[in-house]
Amino acid sequence: MKMSERAWFNGQVVPHHSADPSVASNTLHLGIAVFDGCVAYWNDDHWHQHLMREHMERFHRGAARMDLALPWGVEELLDGVHLLLDTLPRRTHYIRPIAYRTAPEVFFSVDVESTSACMFAVPITRDVDGAVRCQLSSVERVRHTAIDVTWKVSGAYANSYLCEREARRAGFDTGVMLNSAGLICEASSSNLFFVADRTLVTPRLDGDVFPGLTRALLIDQARAADITLVERDVHPAELPNFDAALLCGTLSEVRPVSCIGDVNWPSADDPTVRHVIDRFRRSTHR
Ligand SMILES: Cc1ncc(COP(=O)(O)O)c(C=O)c1O
């Protein structure tokens, strides 16, 4: 991964190493940080900042709920993205904002005032066509009653990491987690949709499913295209009944899913999946 030479750090664009936390920071030891993931698309001659305001609002809200109060508002963060983009080569980039603690703290301390914020960028490839192979993970999705999954708390992402690691080691691209009730939840960092007779089915937001912005966009786009869409519980035993599947997220965009465990689908050729992908891409090529 080649991260940007420069980062927006506490209001200024600086060499990214200036944003490094102390080795004794409780962000490093306890995972006390909140982050987000956004994409700035380079479209021929201009940046298209995809749902950037929505991402920054989510980031700002999550940081506040984790007592990582930022002295910068959403508008200042959006200005910071502009400053960062000005330093980048003209190609599509993933932007990672993070609110964290740089000071040495080690032990639990609440009421800490030293919150820093940083945004850096990583170049990415867009519009990837290949289908994704998913493992049905033995790693259970962290319960929202343990850690609220609507804030992207860094420490909670050890859960996604363990799911992803197990899947990659077994030769899959990613893993799909069940919740504690044994229902299909989501992939390690993407939401899932299934197709049944041209109807889209996605796990309902039961608290354990991350309310992804891409998920919400696809739901809006499906409704606008008169595609029937159902948010409901999805049991692993139903997987063979579906015709196709897709996963979605800001970084992964929309990708066909060719299998979950030993259930296979020709998702890349499914007309509903193709429609969803085409419509999503139209919204990013603006
Ligand atoms: C656990 C998890 N699920 C789903 C998603 C997809 O969310 P979004 O579409 O907002 O990127 C993400 C990415 O942020 C995630 O971390």
UniProtKB/TrEMBL annotation:
Keyword match Metal-binding: no
Keywords from the named record: Aminotransferase, Transferase
InterPro entries: Aminotrans_IV, Aminotransferase-like, BCAT-like_C, BCAT-like_N, Class-IV_PLP-Dep_Aminotrnsfr
Taxonomy, superkingdom: Bacteria
Protein name as catalogued: Branched chain amino acid aminotransferase
GO molecular function: transaminase activity
Native species: Pseudonocardia broussonetiae
Family under the similarity heading: Belongs to the class-IV pyridoxal-phosphate-dependent aminotransferase family.
Gene3D superfamilies xref list: 3.30.470.10, D-amino Acid Aminotransferase, subunit A, domain 2
Family annotation (Pfam families): Aminotran_4 (PF01063)
GO BP term, pick one: carboxylic acid biosynthetic process
